[in-house]
Amino acid sequence: MAEPILKLTDVSIFQKDNLVLSNVDLQVKKGEFVYIIGKTGSGKSSFMKTLYGDLPLSKGEGTVVDFNLKTLKENDIPYLRRKLGIVFQDFKLLSDRNINNNLKFVLKATGWTDTSKMDDKIAEVLDKVGMKTKGFKYPHELSGGEQQRIAIARALLNDPELILADEPTGNLDPQTSVEVMKVLQEINNNGRTIIMATHDYALILKYPHKTIKCDGGKVFEVIQKAI
After folding, report:
1. 207 pLDDT band (50/70/90 cuts)?
2. Which of 29, 34, 136, 224 is the most buried (most CB within 10 A)?
3. How far, in Å, CA of 192 to CA of 205, rounded?
4. Domain 1-83+202-227, CATH 3.40.50.300 — does that match?
């Protein structure tokens, strides 16, 4: 049996003083692909933010990639995030530098110092997302789908144990969404665990996986036919 990479027990999630989700019980095992679905405002993003330390966990018990979210201190958060790959809806690429330098910026920020090792790692992750010839382009020279592939490459830089993808296809057209999804599928097939918040039900039906729904302040697993 694969061990859990994420375990939440009787967790409540707050945005400041507002209770967003309560009585959350969830286990995600290594190698799983899990969707988080729900309407806008149902708590998907708050759920994801709790996992990467952007929102504190004050009630319940939670561990993610061996970090205790309840006792997580401010100076632990960079170490937690080194074990996570985070992909956002809006890419968050630095517009003033090319793709290679975007990725190099992240490596330097996470402690890499050897230039040749950095160059090798950048080439490796760009190859994984089918973008190895695009390193000298600037973000504005790339399509939305290409920028999201770069964002996924960036998430892979430190060989994360878990990838958190928050609406990664939210700004993309249906065809491009499928292309980005294929990249994520391949990464998952190679053994990487992925949790993806989405409202794109067409993708969920095309690529079925375990699906967790946020609704009415609760979180529960849904079977594919009920979506």
Report:
1. very high
2. 34
3. 21
4. yes
Residue type, 46: S
Residue boundaries of the structural domains of the chain: 1-83+202-227
SS3 149: helix
As beta bridge partners, residue 214 has 219
Identify the pLDDT of residue 2. Answer: 72
CB within 8 Å of 71: residues ≥ 6 apart: none
Q: Which CA distances in Å does 193 have to 31, 106, 116, 221?
A: 4, 21, 28, 17
Rounded to an integer, what distance in angstroms lies between the CA atom of residue 164 and that of residue 38? 16
Residue with tokens 């430190």: 158
Please state, in angstroms and as integers, the Cα–Cα distance from residue 158 to each residue in 21, 94, 126, 145, following that order. Answer: 31, 19, 13, 22
User: pTM score, two decimals?
Assistant: 0.92
